[in-house]
């Protein structure tokens, strides 16, 4: 069962990608990247994502979010469609009050997902590559 990573071209997306690759290697499985910017599935890969994939030491498939679904629904639907073993999403650094309330997408995925969700802080991999993210990753919800 693949590891699904919700990706956008941000430090949070990059950190989530590396954490997903690390988790997939640990599980001896593949990664499915769901690009959150809406596009048809035959769209070209964003150059930043293509560069990240070239560094991965595991199989990586890519799909794009349909613009007919909001982000949380797209993540949850795609996880179900591919029978994912885990969802990995990036998270922004937040103020003390902001830490109490997660972003609405993150919160919906955490609450509605029937599988484990790994939330990764953006920019935490410190330049290390997929075999060792070196970041602060925590399993938030292990269902």
TrEMBL record:
<dbReference type="InterPro" id="IPR006015">
    <property type="entry name" value="Universal_stress_UspA"/>
</dbReference>
<dbReference type="InterPro" id="IPR014729">
    <property type="entry name" value="Rossmann-like_a/b/a_fold"/>
</dbReference>
<protein>
    <submittedName>
        <fullName>UspA domain protein</fullName>
    </submittedName>
</protein>
<feature type="domain" description="UspA">
    <location>
        <begin position="2"/>
        <end position="121"/>
    </location>
</feature>
<feature type="region of interest" description="Disordered">
    <location>
        <begin position="122"/>
        <end position="143"/>
    </location>
</feature>
<dbReference type="Pfam" id="PF00582">
    <property type="entry name" value="Usp"/>
</dbReference>
<dbReference type="InterPro" id="IPR006016">
    <property type="entry name" value="UspA"/>
</dbReference>
<comment type="similarity">
    <text>Belongs to the universal stress protein A family.</text>
</comment>
